[in-house]
Amino acid sequence: MSIRPLSLACSELVLYHFLNACTLASLIALSHTSFFFRTMVKTLHRIRLCAVVEQFVGRENVHRFFEVLEVTDSAVGGSTLLRVLTPPTSPSGYDWMPSNLNIYVPLGNISPWNAFFAEIKLDISSRQPGIAFPYKSVTNSHTQYYSRVSAHLILLSESINASVITPAVAASTTLAMCIATCSTTVVLYPELVDRGRAHSGWNSPTVAACIKLQDRDFRHSVSTISWKDACGWNCPVLWRRVQCLRGVGVFCWGGIDNKMRDNGSVGIPFTDVSMKWRLDDKCWNVNCPWSAVRSVA
Ligand SMILES: *[C@@H]1O[C@H](CO)[C@@H](O)[C@H](O)[C@H]1NC(C)=O
Ligand SMILES: *[C@@H]1O[C@H](CO)[C@@H](O)[C@H](O)[C@H]1NC(C)=O
Predict the structure, then answer these.
(1) Closest of 162, 16, 161, 153 to residue 78, by C-alpha
(2) Is 246 in the pocket of ligand 1 (CB under 6 A)?
(3) Which of UniProt's keywords are assigned here (predicted)?
C-alpha cells in the first residue's frame, strides 16, 4: 500500500472505513475526483480482492495467483466478485465470504492453471460441477479444485473463445455478470449491483443460490414486475451492445502491485471486444416504456 501523506488531520484508516461503506457508483465517482482518491479506491479494491483470493489459495500464493491470472488472460468472475464490488452488509465488519471462486479462462489457456494448482498442492475434485445449459453453450470445459477451505471450491471455466466476457454474460443473475482481470474490473450491470437487485439471466439461479443472495442482502427477481421505478438501461428487453467496453462499468484497479497498465485486456484487447445480448423478450414493469403489460392495456 503506497499512499501519499495527507496534510489533513484525518487518518487514512478513517478514510478507508468511510470508503469501505460506499457504493460502487460513489467509489467510481470519487476515484475520478483526484489522484489521491483514485489511489485510495484502487487500494480498497485490491485489499478486498486479495482477501477473497487468499481465502481460497492461501496468503503465500496470492501473488502467484495474480501472475497466472495475467499470463493466461483469465478473470475472476461471477458472484465471487460481489464481495469486492459492494460494501459490507454487517456493521460489525465481519462479513460473508464467497462460497466458491469462479475463474474464467480463455480457450486453450487452462494448463498454466492446472500447473499452478498442482504446485500449491490443491486437488482436483472428481465431482462434476452442475453446469446450467446456457452456461454450457459459452464454455468449453470445467475443472473443479478443492481450496484451502475444504467446503469451498475453485471452479475453472474455459470460455468457448478468447474472451472472458463471454462466460460472464451467461451468469444466472445480472449481479454475477462481472469480471476482474489482473488489472481491470468490468461490470455489465453496475446500477443493479448498487441497488442490490439481481435479475435472472438466461437461466434462473438455483433455489440454494437465491437463498444465498437473500442472506447477503440482495433481492432476486425472475422478471421486472416488482420494480417500482423505470428500468432504464437495465431493462431486460433492451439489446445491450458492448463495443470496445463502452456501455458497461469499467474500473482499472491497477493489479496487485498497482503497476499494471490501465489498458489491459479481457482475454482480447479492449478494442476487439464486441458482444450483443439481452436477458428477456418481455418486460413486466408498468413503469417502463418497454413494458409488455402497458402495451397490452
Ligand atoms: C497499452 O498502452 C500502451 C502505452 O500507452 C500501448 O503501447 C499498448 O499497445 C497498449 N496495450 C493495449 C493492449 O492496448
Ligand atoms: C466469443 O463468443 C461470443 C458469443 O458467441 C461472441 O459474441 C464474441 O464476439 C466472441 N468473441 C471473440 C473474441 O471471438
Answers:
(1) 153
(2) no
(3) Membrane, Transmembrane, Transmembrane helix
CA 237 to ligand 2 centroid distance, Å: 20
Pairing of strands 219-221, 197-199: parallel
d(CA 42, CA 34): 12
Determine the Cα–Cα distance for residues 167 and 165; give it in Å rounded to an integer.
Answer: 6
Write the pLDDT tens digit of every residue in 144-165: 999 988 788 999 999 999 999 9
pTM (predicted TM-score): 0.87
Q: Is residue 266 a contact partner of residue 75, using CB atoms and an 8 Å limit?
A: yes
CA-nearest residue for atom 11, ligand 1, is 263
Other beta carbons within 10 angstroms of residue 127's beta carbon come to 9
Give me the sign of the Cα torsion angle 246, 105, 196, 135: positive
Span 201-212, pLDDT tens digits: 888 888 888 888
HSE of 204 in the Cβ direction (CA atoms, 13 Å)? 9
- 244 touches ligand 1 (CB under 6 Å): no
Q: How far is residue 250's CA from residue 234's CA, in Å, rounded to a whole number?
A: 16
Counting from 1 in the atom list of ligand 1, the atom nearest the Cα of 264 is 13
